């Protein structure tokens, strides 16, 4: 029985107020997951224990990286010369920069993997395990060439045609007669 009626809480024994709390969001959470913060919800009835606060996670899309679980995907561009000869390039990953090898003869659309450089696995028993980062290679072809570059590329074309012609000689294949 309530002896004195409280106009502020309407006799409920609890007041509504706004409170700010700091919550650590663990790395690797997915869009739509919910996070429980124990004891930070509404006050319990009749002086009971506070309830829990549930936070629904919304992960913003990144303009560079795409995510699928713990694997990360992004695009890189290399010059046609680097694609032909091979090189090493500096690439952005979620925690900084890394170096990736572009093998000789890499084709446009090839997918390269940096093992263990993706997103962290959320499970605590994983011991810091991470997904992989996959890079789709784009090959940049110049739209204009200097006179010297044109001569070099024409020389390369001539060399490739002569080599192809030489490879087919003496084999008696159908295409040798065309």
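Sequence proposed for the structure above (178 residues):
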């Amino acid at each position: 029985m309530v002896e004195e009626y409280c106009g502020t809480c309407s006799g409920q024994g609890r007041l509504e107020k706004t409170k700010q709390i700091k919550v650590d969001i663990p790395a690797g959470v997915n869009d739509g997951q919910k996070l429980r913060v124990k004891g930070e919800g509404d006050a319990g009835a009749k002086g009971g224990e506070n309830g829990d606060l549930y936070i629904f996670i919304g992960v913003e899309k990144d303009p560079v990286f795409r995510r699928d679980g713990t694997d990360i995907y992004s695009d890189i561009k290399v010059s046609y010369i680097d694609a032909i000869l091979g090189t090493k390039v500096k690439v952005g990953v979620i925690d900084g920069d890394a170096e990736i090898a572009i093998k000789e003869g890499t084709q446009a659309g090839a997918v390269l993997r940096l093992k263990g450089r993706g997103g962290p696995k959320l499970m605590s028993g994983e011991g810091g395990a991470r997904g992989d980062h996959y890079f789709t290679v784009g090959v940049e072809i110049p739209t204009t060439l200097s006179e010297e570059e044109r001569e070099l590329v024409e020389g390369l074309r001539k060399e490739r045609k002569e080599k192809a012609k030489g490879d087919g000689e003496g084999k008696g294949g159908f295409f040798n007669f065309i």
